[in-house]
Write a structure and sequence with these properties.
6 strands, alpha/beta, globular, 302 residues, 9 helices, disordered C terminus, 37% helix
Length: 302
Amino acid sequence: MSADQTPDGKASDALPQKRITEPLSSPADATPVLTDPWTALRVFTPARIALGRTGASQPTAALLAFSLAHAQARDAVHEAFDAASMSIELQADGVQTIVVHSRATDRPMYLRRPDLGRRLDAASCDRLRKAADDAKAAPDLVLVVADGLSALAVSRHAQPMLKAIRSQLPGWSIGPVVLAEQARVALGDDVGELLGARAVALLVGERPGLTSPDSLGIYLTWAPRVGRSDAERNCISNIRPEGLSYEQAAVTLAGLLEGAKRLGTSGIMLKDETPTPASEALGARLDLEPDLIRASDATPDT
C-alpha cells in the first residue's frame, strides 16, 4: 500500500505528507518583521498604526503590547479608590474634605447598576446637609473627586489637578472637596444641590482606553440639581501628561465657569472659547503663510 492509499486500497483525498528529514529552522531563520510605510507617523500619535507584520500576522511585540494594554485597562476599572488616604493628604495641605458614597455598595454592583452610582446613599446625604448647615455661606463652586471607571486616573491626577484649578479661581469661593466612592458623573448634582453651590466641577476617572488607562475628565454643571441631563454639562477630557495638561485644563475650566456665570447656564449653550496651544500654533502658521488663508477662502469652480 502506497502512502496515498487508504487501507482498503482506494486513493486517499489527503495531501501527501512530506517527511521531515532536516532540523526545524532556528529563530534566526524565522520570517522577518516587515516595516510599514507609515512608520514615521508614529511619532505623532500613540494610536496603533504602522505596527509592521510578520507574514500575515502582527509582530509578537505588537501583540504582547496590546495584551498588556488590555490588562491595564481592565485593572483600572476594578482598582479601588482609597478616598480615606486622599482625604488625609488633602487635609494636610489645608483643604477641607468630605468623603461620601453612592448607593452602589461595592464595585460589582457599581458596574452592573449605573443608576445607583448616580445617587448618594442616605448617610452621605446627611453628612452633606450637616456641612451645609455649618457653613457660613453657600460656596460658588464645589469640587468633587469621583473614582468613576478609573480610580487609577484619580489617584495619579486628582491632587495636582485640584491645585491647578484653585490657582485659576482666585475670586471664587470654593467649598470642601468631596471625595466620592463608586460614583458616576450625575452624582455631582446631588452634592452640589445639598451644599447649595452655584456650580459643581466633578473630576472623574474616564473609561480606560487601550492607550490611556489613567485619563481624567472634568464635568462642569451650573446650578446643579438632581435630574440634570448630560446636555446641561460641559466636559474637559483626556487630562494626563500624555494628553491635556493640568494647567491647560484648569484654564479651560476657569473660562467655562466665567461663561456659565455670565449666561446662567452650562452645557450645549456654553462654548469653550479658550485658546489651546494647537490653535495658537495654527494661528501663528497662518500669519506666516498667508497663502494658506487665500487658498481656504478661494471660491471653488462650479
